[in-house]
Here is the input.
Amino acid sequence: MTKGRLLALRQQLRDLGLQGFVVPHADEHQNEYTPANAERLAWLTGFTGSAGQAALTMSEGAIFVDGRYTLQVRQQTDKRQFAPLDLFEDKIEDWLAERVKKGDRIGYDPWLHTREWIGKVSDKLSEKGAELLPVDENPIDQVWQGRPADSDAPAVSHPTEYSGEESRHKRERIAADTKTKGADAVVLTMLDSIAWLFNIRGSDVAHTPLVSSYAILFADGSATLFIDPGKVDEDLKGFLGKQVKLADKSDFIDHLKKLKQKKVCVDPKRTHAAVFEILEKAGAKLIPADDPCVLPKAMKNEAEITGTRNAHNRDAIAVCKFLAWLDEMGPKGEIDEIDAEEKLLSFRQEQPLFKDTSFGTISGAGPNGAIVHYRATEQSRRKLEPDMLYLVDSGGQYLDGTTDITRTVIIGTPTEEQKDRFTRVLKGHIALAQARFPHGRSGAHLDSLARKPLWDVGLDYNHGTGHGVGSYLGVHEGPQSISRLGFNVPLEPGMILSNEPGYYKEGEYGIRIENLVLVRERKFEEEEQPMLSFETLTHVPIDKRLVNAYMMTTPEITWFNIYHAQVREIVGPHLSGKEKDWLMKATESLVVL
Here is the structure.
């Protein structure tokens, strides 16, 4: 199938006078999870991960992914057509430059790439006398038979009881920030920013309650929201108020052109190049600036914090019920990865305010657990069997919060190596959970805390230790992170992140322990300055059968036991019978004999 699609695409490129093309995993809003009709990378290559890009010439192809997808990309793509490469170490501009000749033209879709990316690749190709050219219409769309239509799902209001702040107040704050930059307006293309600013949600994107739209916010607090008219009913119009004008999404370009002679803020890292080109041609004066919604969206208010605590507590009930069921059924060897995934979903669906999963569940038995972003399929589904590690990474979208949790459990009896690796991951998890740090520190300053127990014996994991999480929005939210790449954004009170160190032994097993944490400020009397710390939001037992207590320090054991006591207190009253018995046993204190 891949070969036939490649042939059709290359013929289209010939008709356009192009010698190559770049295909990112992206839509015009730079979403992580994209609508079905924007899954061009998956359609062309077979790779279904949430990050990556492909490049092709008339005779070769390559696909670039990060460390999460190293194994997955090899399994899903034809290596004869697309050589798998590292997204960060193997630069796409270098790959193209090595293959072009003078006069070659490499195409790209300006609605799918940022200006920063285009400048970098264009400069590299120009050294070889080649050119990077925008296309008016994506050539994949022209050869993609049966391409899905746009979603017609309605947009809905997100009540103040969950958002914690009226949209009018948010717009006034952002407008004031826009005015201080000397701008007349700011263009917004990120769907989570628009959803947060206008307090609207939808279902146009899988796992994330987003509405396909654009927006222009003016310095006086008024705004134009570009959205399919069929998505908006009278109730939503009234909710948005008179200061928000509605226009069809197809009118966005015309309205950009009307900003001539205006000073306009646009985010060069998050906004596609087409917007810049349209504004520049119209004569607007561009002010490069970060999307003004990103940081305030990340710093949750008290209503959002209360909501996310409540959502996590309900989610914990569902996950505990699932783990109790798994403890009974797993050793029988009768269930597989998809059976387990579906059972977990059924428990979540019982919980109030549940709307959807927050991402595709990673249900990995044995060697499949070593594939960081594995997705079980009818072809790959593996049975859970005795003496096997099982990794399940999942989350829920609730009206009052977004959850993300990973647990690794043993089906039967673990090996000493598995207990050693699990305990090292746990020690790293605890070190990060207990971290205290001054204001102004970013996640990059903390990342090594979680890795040290693995580094001590020459081990590591090839993904970040933590990502930001939204409030009934994206399960992966910026700008905050805990990783070696997260130097630029200090952690601030109200930010929610994941704490998820891991270890993966290819072909055998994977281990990851993930809780979500909230950044909080606390000051003790003996301290000279307030310090930041983490409040753990997730309350689900960590499999103590995999813990080598002799490798743990007394403070680590104390943390572990206090954590499990909190799990009992929060979840216990909501369980009964076998499930309650399982919880009591799973949360027994860890004791060194």
User: Anything to note?
Assistant: The two ends are 59 Å apart (CA to CA). The CA atoms of residues 237 and 552 lie 57 Å apart.
